[in-house]
Automatic annotation (TrEMBL):
Keyword Zinc tagged: no
Gene expressing this chain: mutY
Catalytic activity: Hydrolyzes free adenine bases from 7,8-dihydro-8-oxoguanine:adenine mismatched double-stranded DNA, leaving an apurinic site
Keyword tags: 4Fe-4S, DNA damage, DNA repair, Glycosidase, Hydrolase, Iron, Iron-sulfur, Metal-binding
Source organism superkingdom: Bacteria
UniProt cross-references to CDD domains, sorted A to Z: ENDO3c (cd00056), NUDIX_DNA_Glycosylase_C-MutY (cd03431)
Recorded family membership: Belongs to the Nth/MutY family.
Stored SUPFAM superfamilies: DNA-glycosylase, Nudix
Protein name: Adenine DNA glycosylase
Known EC number: 3.2.2.31
Amino acid sequence: MIFSKTLTYWYSNNKRSLPWRETKDPYHIWLSEIILQQTQVKQGLPYYNAFTQKYLNVFQLASADESDVLKLWQGLGYYSRARNLHATAKYVANELNGEFPDNYKDLLKLKGIGDYTASAMASICFNEATAVVDGNVYRVLSRYFGIETPINSSKGNKVFKDLAQELLDKDNPAEFNQAIMEFGARQCKPQSPDCSVCPFNTSCVAHNENRIKDLPVKIKSAQAKKKYFNFLVFISEDGKTILEKRKTKGIWQNLYQFPLIETNSIIEAKSFRQHLKSHDLLKEESFELSLYNKEPIVHKLSHQHLFTNFWIVNTKKLPKKGISTQKINEYAVPVLIGNFIEAFNF
């Protein structure tokens, strides 16, 4: 009880003014929670504003084209979140008459909604006493109580969920949940938190035992795989290029990219030109080939590192149907491609 009161008192004096804290509308809370997954507030806020301004309610989002949703999401990463967002909007609009379920158990059934988001929505929108556990909560609880159970283990999931539920202010779950997340984000930061002004500094195990840097504990994930991407950036004399839609399942599903050739390692220009002879797009076309970037661009994802080269292919005409380079910004692309397009300035 003392922990809860201290936490909510800190929150009342330190909480940020954010648009989703001014409402209990499930649509807006849902949007904010999905956008803020693995995303800091300062990065997610412009996206939240963009979505709520373009799609005023779940019906408008449901009726949008997926390509438009992906384009608006561009730059946030983890594009499966955007695809699930759109799928859930259509389900809620068409099957539930626009009404989100009013409890944790049924919210959990919706696509893209896990324990954290269901708990946040249930507590904030419907005052259900169910505790949230996210990265911020893991950090606060592990440090305060000195818990060494790995947070990315099944045992850790249960230990921290049970503890958060035990500490939860059952009379005001929404404020408690928002308070502990805010506390983790602003006070009990991952790196170099200012423990001198922390209201828990006399009772925090990690602080008293000098273990702030050691907690929370996380099992090291497998080493990321290396992949070698070579994008062909066609430019024809009439100002067109080629973008292809990724059909295969994966993080970039349904996003657009330049024609891609994967190799087993970083490849030099002379060897790559030979490699292109077997590629359908360049079999019978005369072209000029040049490497845009001097060093491979390394794009790091959670499970793989992409060593990327962009090859500029100047040709009289395209080997297949293309698009005007003036319209290239209308297409939803991965951030890796988007950064190149911005830098290249077609």
